[in-house]
Amino acid sequence: MSAGAGLAGQAARAVGWGAAGSVAKLVLQFGTQIMLARILGPEQYGLFAMGVLVVSLATFLADFGMAYGLIQKPQVSDDDLRCVFTWQILVGLVVATGVWAGSDLIARGFGEARAAAVVAALAPVCLLNALSAPSLNMLKRRMDFRSIQLSQVGSYVVGHVLCGLPLALWLGDVRALIVAWLVQSTVALVWAYAAVRHPLRPLWNTADRPAMLSVGLTVMVTNLLNWLLQNVDRAVVARSYTASSIGSYSAAYNLVYTPTTTLLGVIQPVFYSASARMDSADRGRQAGVYQAVLLVILLLLAPAYVAAAVLADPIIALLYGSAWRDAGALLTPFALAMPAFLIWGMSTPMLWAAGHARKEFRSQLPVLLLWLLVCAAASQGPVLWVAWGVAGLFLVRAATMVGQVCRVLSIPARDLWRTLRPGALACVLVGLSCEALLQLGQLAGVGAVGLLLPVLALGLGGTLLLMAATLSLTVAPDVRPALRPVLARLPAALRRLRALRRLLEE
């Protein structure tokens, strides 16, 4: 077997394990977090969210990126591993100690004295994650995603399912979540180290340390910028509202954001790899693929988010219980924002593949400043204002990214509209159908929760009928070749519909 074929097979196995692990983690997190939220309620969940906000930022500082240099080095020696591990220990200890010592000051910044104990208790997570970085990056270097996914899924089961849920029932407060995260981080560290068993003896310097430090600092700055983009709104909410409000805000946001990021994590690398292999001069083919991606997002995925937005209150009542009713209003803008987030996420690799990565990077800082200004202004009113502000920012960001890609690939506005039109019609149909059925149910005296499954089923049926009726008439000709492989994977019953059959056979 050739080296190229071996690498291709290894990459295929890595993608398979990555997808399987992502789905397993999503199912586990979805079910476990809902049960923990129902047991503990929004106030305790909000206190934990404050701690997570601080520790996730501190973890980027503790795992300052030096271990990422191990992936890029042509050869990795024991001295390289010893040096990286030594620096991870040092920086992890400094950051964890700083978080612990500054917990009272951080709590005063939040205006919530109880957050001090939560932040201090979670400080060791910074050190544990820093210590696990060399092992995890060596596993990535070997493309051993089987071990990575097993460690992540296994540690989550031990931490949150076996420890977190029983403790939540016993203690009934935020301590259950703290212990669950500490146990998960410890088990993940031990599991990853057992798969690599790198040397532990300290070493302060090697010939390649400056190069690895340079890579580390670049990675750290990029991660910090991404963290700010993803968390500035929650920081503003934590600073401006009660623990119960941030609990409701985090629960509603995570309910749609977690599956969306999981989906992006699976398909974005594949899309980037496929786009990068196209001839950079073949802009027509790249444009067709990009338009097909937009069509799939808006026609097949966006209607589900629209249904979630319309049915937000019964969804929250069914999953979380009556104690979380305030999260229903927040779920509506977050659900409507997710299609824009998907479009944003899938536009980025197209710019990279077309050789315009700097366009996306240069726009990050202005977006961050706008994000901060909008969230700060919206925080002067109810927390719902912040949620709608964030939804608007997602839409603006997606529109900006689509505009950049269309300019790079020379996609005319008319073709873009023909691509977006079927999905827009499907979203309107699903939204109106769900709202009409909810209103009819209320007139008939049927509770919203009882109508949830019938409304979702009818909404899905309406989407499929609209897709079959309009797809072959509205899709631009240069998009159809890229769309056919997606349609070919639909169930046989759908492929037999006349409109889809004609599109597949053209």
Describe the protein:
With about 500 residues, the chain is an all-alpha fold. The protein contains 21 helices and no strands. The protein has helices at about 5-60, 70, 80-100, 105-110, 115-120, 125-140, 145-170, 175-195, 210-240, 245-275, 285-310, 310-320, 325-355, 355-360, 365-380, 385-410, 415-445, 450-475, 480-485, 490-495, 500-505. Helix 1 runs parallel beside helix 7, helix 4 (about 105-110) crosses helix 5 and helix 13 packs parallel to helix 16 (about 385-410). The longest helix is centred in the N-terminal third of the chain and has 60 residues, at about 5-60. Residues about 1-10 and about 470-475 have low confidence and may be disordered.
Report low-confidence residues grouped into runs of 5 or more.
1-11, 468-476
State mean pLDDT (0 to 100 scale).
77
Over the alpha carbons, how many angstroms does the gyration radius reach? 24 Å
What's the end-to-end separation, in Å? Answer: 39 Å
Task: Note the overall shape.
Answer: globular
Helix-strand category: mainly alpha
- The percent range for strand residues is under 5%
The count of β-strands is: 0
Number of helices: 21
Task: Give the % helix.
Answer: over 70%
Major sheet attributes? none
Element order, helices and strands? HHHHHHHHHHHHHHHHHHHHH
